[in-house]
Amino acid sequence: MKKLACVLLLSLMATNTFAMPEYRTEMQERLKASKKLSFDFESGIAVGRVLGLFENYFGNINIIYDPKVDQDKEITIDTGFNNGLVTFEKVLHRANLQYQVVGPNTIKILPK
After folding, report:
1. To bridge 36 with a disulfide, which of 40, 54, 56, 81 should be the other Cys (CB 3.0-4.6 Å)?
2. CATH dotted code for 2-111
């Protein structure tokens, strides 16, 4: 029974919704409130580079990476005009990544 409880707890920790829920909602609202933006990289762009654009655009958000994330992986994407949260989530989905909010200004990028 203890093993089952540990497995459930670890699986919850691996999902986006468990990590720092008090900061997650705040971060999502900040990203939603942004001006609409669009990314169109049909010829490809490195994941780390496109996520760096988010850091520059929002200014007060730090993105850190799990060691398993290949920041040089090239993706092609056309996000259309959306708020920052939708655009961010589209980029992560295209790169097969997820995120956790680990602090008031920090997002950690993880593989799915």
Report:
1. 81
2. 3.55.50.30
